[in-house]
Amino acid sequence: MLDYDHEAERYDELRGGEPRAAAAAEGVLALVPDGARTLLDAACGTGIVTRRLAADRPGMRVVGVDLSPGMIRRAAARLPGAVVRADSRRLPFPDGRFDAVCTVWLLHLAPRAEDVRATVAECARVLAPGGVWVTTVDKGAAHNVGSDIDAVLASRPPSAPRDAADAVTARAAEAGLVPAGRGGFRGHGQGRSPRRALADLRRGWFMTLPPGDPAAEPFAARLAALPDQDRPRPDPWFALRAFRRPEGAS
Prior knowledge:
Layout: H1 4-7, H2 11-14, H3 17-29, E1 38-42, H4 48-56, E2 61-66, H5 69-78, E3 83-85, E4 98-103, H6 113-125, E5 127-137, H7 139-142, H8 148-153, H9 165-174, E6 178-186, H10 194-203, H11 216-224, E7 237-244
Parallel strand pairs: 1-2, 1-4, 2-3, 4-5
Antiparallel strand pairs: 5-7, 6-7
């Protein structure tokens, strides 16, 4: 897995910057009720999306949390006084504190299914009755755009996605949430070139091919042999699901 403290300084640059953040915020807010007055961005990273959420919905108080000190430093610079260092599996807020919660690009990083369950339960706990949780799902599939890079990587060792839509829906139901909508957004600037895919491989992006693993070398060689090394392939399309805490829920 990537070291997100190390990644913080160049995280936005490598992942589409402001255009991607604007698309993500727009996608999330399309599923957040107009009357929401408070929103928690759990695993807010550098705060680039969090800041957009606040700017695009005037009058809504937005709070961000993240576990990485490096990410939190950048987020706090963007949203002074609105960012807390915390684990999304143990949120430091009372029950029913927020009208909305979002988790963008978080659940796929969970090391165990139990961690997904804990995160979803915490997001549900801090939601007020009638509140909505919005999350990305199926992130790995979003990057499969049918390119020659995907063809090279297709035979890499499989891993069970922690953010599979059906599994997330089941965890939400366990936490007392009901489906409340679907959406998505384009990952502007995240279409990989072969050279970037190779750099991602070397950095540990693909969890079943960790840096230094001999099994990664054939994939590295094939990526290096692809044509148009610096031409980005199509951008991914990220899927969103929304879940609501029913009125009257305790």
